[in-house]
């Protein structure tokens, strides 16, 4: 279905104001439902929606209506045919004015402009999570409501003006009817020459308008080409600037990463030195314990020698005559030797147990050091992965913001161009209306001047003039039908393009809003999961430290029974180790707390920056007048 010019026959041949055809509803507007113009025999051309398949049928119906009108008019129409030529230009002008009024009333752009704007703003700002954006949205809605009120008042004024124009049109039709009645009686060669002169002037005006239209079109295309070159140049400069910024940022991140690696290497070297000093202190303590055992073994040998001397002296004093005493002494000596042997075996077992305990402590410390080193490697790998992921998310967020800013600017430009086109059409309709009124007044004055002249009736010439006018009028209507069909196709293409652009922008805004919301939710979930994992790891480390402390305490309780002399040294060593571990735990907890605070502050700063950019974009959304949404079609 295409919108085109359709022919409306005279009221005598059509009894109803509405006709239904397959696939479309064609409305035929009568001049003013019961106005005196219903008696006029001049056909009316209106801007109506018509199917392409029924154009030929309507042309046939037009020819039949013409025949019917000719048969109904009879001899009376012979005198009126000459005057129809002079009124054909006015009829075409009035038809064009009616078409413009109908298109203005039925234009979906004018009727739904405010609603579409409000719906677009609601779709963009419905899922906002920032109070500042909601405040800006509320202010914009308030401004839109005020503008809608102003539009309603202007629309009311337009309705009043249309009513006045209709009443004036009724009067003009009445005057034309009277003029045609007089012209049926007063026709001559003067009217024929005048009609030819008017036709030549009309063709000259059409040629002038066509030349002016082509000139303006060329100027507009040159202007659009210049604007496009300027936009390309600015875009290239912006891309170069952003590339330099990215290079500087990448170099800075590499420098920071190098500094961080150097700091981690220094920390690892410090930990290695601490471990080495701890191992050396353990070796020194073991050497001291060995010397202590050696010293105590020498004292025990001296004590045994002294006791043996005492026993020999006692035996020497009592050996005479005391066989029983010698036997008893021998038994006692054997028993003492056995006890000494058991004591020596006991000392050997205790030494072996102490050696094995020291070996186990050394192995457990070495395994703990390996586990700690592996945990640090995993931690560093996780930090590197987190840095890479944050960098990726920053790049994706930057691309998303750039795309949204570009889309919002393009949308604002499109809406501004549509408003400008609507205003231009409105101004054109007013100018056409005023020109029509001026032409009608001038024509009435000229007809009043010509009425004072008395001319003779010439029937044959009037009949020839009427036939000529009918042929010219038929050709004009066919040309108007073709032009109207082309204009309707263009208008339909423009409306379809506008609807597609609006639907695409709406879907794009909805998709980007949902995608951004999902990304923010996923990022928050990942951050909470990471915090939970860090907290669980910290708890596990504390529990492991408590287990180690309990194990050391248990070892101290077992060793206290057999190693009383080393209790003091072990207690001091454990206290020193506990203090060192507590200091490390406190430092780690403090570092973790500071890191979490830094992450929170960075997230808050990013959110504030995004909110500020969004507010700036919303404030500047309606002040960009560059570009033309139909630039690709025109140039």
Q: What is the total tally of β strands?
A: 4
Number of H/I helices = 9
Largest sheet: 2 strands, antiparallel
Q: Span from first to last CA?
A: 28 Å
Element-level helix/strand string? EEEEHHHHHHHHH
Q: What number is the mean pLDDT?
A: 73
Q: Which ranges are low-confidence, i.e. pLDDT below 50, for 5 or more consecutive residues?
A: 1-82, 623-635
Give me the Rg, rounded.
Answer: 54 Å
- Give me the side-by-side strand order of the main sheet: 1-4
Biased composition (Polar residues): 1-15
Coiled coil: 514-541
Keywords: Coiled coil
Region (Disordered): 1-90
Describe the structure.
Residues 1-82 and 623-635 have low confidence and may be disordered. This protein is mostly helical and 635 residues long. Strand 2 (18-21) and strand 3 form a beta hairpin. A two-stranded antiparallel ribbon has the order 1-4. A two-stranded antiparallel ribbon has the order 2-3. The chain has a domain at 1-68. Helix 2 (76-106) runs antiparallel to helix 4, helix 2 (76-106) runs parallel beside helix 7 and helix 7 runs antiparallel to helix 8 (567-619). It is 85% helix and 3% strand. The protein is rod-shaped, with a radius of gyration of 54 Å. 7% of the residues are buried. Keywords: Coiled coil. Residues 51-68 have a biased composition (Basic and acidic residues). Residues 1-15 have a biased composition (Polar residues). Residues 514-541 form a coiled coil. Residues 1-90 are annotated as: Disordered.
């Amino acid at each position: 279905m295409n919108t085109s010019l359709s022919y409306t026959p005279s009221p005598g041949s059509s009894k109803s104001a509405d006709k239904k055809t397959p696939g479309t509803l064609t409305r035929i507007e009568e001049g003013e439902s019961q106005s005196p113009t219903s008696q006029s025999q001049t056909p009316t051309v209106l801007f109506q929606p018509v199917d392409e398949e029924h154009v030929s049928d309507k042309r046939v119906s037009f020819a039949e209506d013409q025949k019917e009108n000719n048969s109904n008019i009879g001899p009376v129409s012979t005198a009126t045919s000459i005057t129809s030529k002079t009124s054909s230009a006015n009829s075409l002008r009035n038809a064009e004015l009616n078409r413009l009024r109908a298109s203005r009333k039925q234009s979906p752009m004018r009727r739904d402009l405010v609603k579409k704007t409000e719906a677009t703003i609601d779709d963009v700002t419905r899922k906002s999570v920032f109070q500042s954006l909601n405040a800006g949205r509320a202010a914009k809605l308030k401004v839109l409501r005020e503008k809608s009120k102003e539009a309603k008042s202007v629309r009311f004024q337009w309705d009043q003006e249309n009513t006045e124009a209709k009443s004036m049109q009724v009067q003009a039709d009445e005057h034309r009817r009277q003029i045609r009645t007089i012209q049926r009686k007063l026709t001559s060669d003067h009217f024929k020459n005048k009609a030819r002169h008017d036709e030549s002037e009309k063709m000259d005006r059409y040629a002038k308008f066509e030349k002016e239209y082509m000139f303006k079109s060329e100027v507009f295309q040159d202007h659009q080409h210049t604007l496009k070159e300027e936009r390309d140049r600015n875009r290239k400069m912006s891309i170069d600037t952003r590339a330099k910024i990215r290079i500087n940022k990448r170099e800075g991140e590499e420098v920071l990463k190098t500094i961080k690696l150097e700091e981690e290497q220094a920390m690892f070297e410090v930990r290695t030195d601490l471990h080495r000093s701890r191992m050396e202190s353990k070796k020194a303590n073991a050497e001291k314990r060995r010397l202590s055992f050696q010293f105590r073994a020498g004292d025990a040998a001296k004590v045994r020698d002294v006791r043996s001397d005492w026993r020999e002296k006692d035996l020497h004093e009592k050996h005479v005559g005391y066989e029983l005493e010698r036997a008893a002494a021998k038994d006692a000596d054997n028993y003492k030797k056995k006890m000494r042997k058991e004591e020596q075996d006991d000392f050997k077992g205790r030494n072996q147990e102490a050696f094995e305990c020291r070996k186990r402590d050394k192995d457990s410390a070495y395994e703990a050091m390996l586990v700690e080193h592996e945990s640090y490697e995993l931690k560093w790998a996780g930090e590197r992965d987190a840095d890479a992921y944050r960098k990726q998310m920053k790049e994706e967020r930057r691309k998303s913001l750039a795309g949204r800013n570009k889309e919002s600017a393009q949308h604002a430009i499109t809406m501004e161009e549509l408003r400008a086109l609507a205003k231009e059409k409105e101004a054109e309709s007013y100018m056409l209306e005023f020109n029509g009124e001026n032409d009608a007044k001038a024509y009435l004055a000229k007809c009043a001047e010509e009425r004072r002249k008395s001319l003779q009736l010439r029937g044959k010439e009037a009949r020839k003039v009427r036939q000529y006018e009918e042929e010219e009028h038929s050709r004009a209507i066919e040309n108007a039908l073709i032009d109207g069909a082309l204009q309707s196709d263009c208008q339909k293409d423009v409306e379809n393009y506008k609807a597609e652009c609006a639907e695409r922008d709406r879907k794009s805004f909805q998709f980007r809003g949902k995608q951004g919301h999902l990304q923010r939710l996923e990022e928050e979930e990942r951050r909470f999961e990471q915090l939970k994992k860090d907290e669980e790891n910290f708890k596990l480390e504390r529990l492991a430290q408590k287990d180690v402390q309990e194990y050391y305490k248990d070892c101290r309780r077992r060793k206290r029974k057999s190693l009383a002399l080393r209790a003091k040294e072990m207690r001091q060593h454990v206290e020193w180790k506990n203090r060192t571990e507590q200091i490390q735990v406190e430092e780690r907890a403090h570092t973790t707390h500071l890191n979490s605070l830094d992450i929170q502050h960075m997230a808050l700063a990013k959110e504030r920056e995004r909110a500020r950019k969004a507010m700036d974009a919303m404030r500047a959304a309606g002040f960009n007048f560059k570009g033309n949404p139909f630039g690709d079609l025109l140039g």
